[in-house]
Amino acid sequence: MSLISQRLQLGVKQQQILTPGLVQMATVLQLNKLELREKLAQEIASNPVLEASEEGEELTPEEVQALLEAERPQPSDSEVLQVTMAAAEEAATDSGERMPPEEAAAESGSAEAPAEAAAEKAADPFEQVDFGDYFDEWMDPGFRTPAAESPEKPSFELFLPAPVTLTEHLRQQLALVVLDEEVRAAADAIIGNLDETGYLSVSLEEIAQAEGFSARALEEALGAVQRLDPAGVGARSLQECLLLQLESRGARGGVAWQIVENHLKLVESRSVRELMRLLGRPQEHIEIALEVIRHLDPKPGLKYSGPGARQVEPDVYITRNGDEYVIQLSDEDLPPLRINGSYRRLLEPGQGADKETRNYVKERYQSALQLIRNIEQRRQTILRVCESIVRRQREFLENGIDALRPMMIKEVAEEIGVHPSTVSRAVANKYAHTPQGVFELRFFFSEAVQGPSGGAIPLLTLKRMVKKMIEEEDRRKPLTDDQIAAALQRQGIQVTRRTVAKYREDMKIPSTHHRRVKD
User: Fold this and answer.
1) Which residues share a beta bridge with 194?
2) Which of 75, 95, 277, 433 could join 314 via S-S bond, C-beta 3.0 to 4.6 A?
3) What is this structure's pTM?
């Protein structure tokens, strides 16, 4: 008899499901300014009722009246429905004082319509929106702050140029070198085969077979490429790269040249005494030569082949105005959103629109309104988070990074009354322009470590202390992790050796063995 069988069984369980509106709200909240600008462009392109209006465009009282008339069952002559960001927030934070849809429909004249039409209107979520509440505060002349009262923001005087690649940089120099036609073509082929670090990734024989150049032309072309800037480019090994750089400095045949050419492995182990014996040079000469070698670039092409400068545009400006700090969102170049009211006619009775068309237009209107509400919700959340940061990090704003205080995301979330994940999204990939410079918002959040006198210091400050101690150590007798931990404990900071080792690895600082300079 088989113990496996199929059967139907009923069960009850609780499950949290995010609506599309909540998903969009979480997505919009974690976008920075540049990403939000792209998101708005995509939404405007995909939603026909959503448009970008010109800056400063406003509704007149006549247009508002026409808009309100459009909410009645009778057809309206309204052409454009414009919803501002402040109006969307009013709808999102409605406390329930609005009349039920049935009562609103009765007072707007729905009693004169057939009973089934009134029931359909009451059940339609789109028709439940009371647009009159949207404009009560917006029509107040004192609602908008005059631009003259806002503090002046720092202006950007420099803009990032397009990065120059390594290939472009080398070919620009090659154009100024006098070469015959075959050698110039061979040099161009060699440049095309350089990897991102500036090394020649294939052999000259392979280039000759693929391109048909003679050995003489390739050798002459390689010499021409290796004389270009940056020094060391076109090398086929680390040793050749370092020798090319030393030659460009006029150090050919010197102590550093001899070390790289014959004893490169001893450089890594820092065997000063062994190099003294092999080269017959005093310790001072060896140490100077090793210092020169350490300042050479083993990957000269990365300065042109790397990702380049990262473009950062602050989302928040924190400026000082007297004894207070003013917080402003940098959203002046985001397109103001406008809802096109011409599609409203498709929702009116007697216009010949079928049910599928009406449902599509209603869905587009609801999506547009939801996006505007979510953008305003994002704005308010970021402002509240930044207000909490300013209150807690006032000493940092006045005195710099050494005055940074420990602060956890959970503490800010409890202060402003939201979930910690909301604060985490609000500070993700966003930057603030402060009197101390431009910092990522996550920079202000740091764990607390037990400090002197029972106080607490931020983890970032502790890492800076560890780094400073290592930078000031004796290279012949570098500090161990135990010694660093003991020194911090003498200052009242309770850390263990494993904690110090973890911080050191996070900062990519080598171990004691690799930092030691051997005699």
Assistant:
1) 200
2) 433
3) 0.53
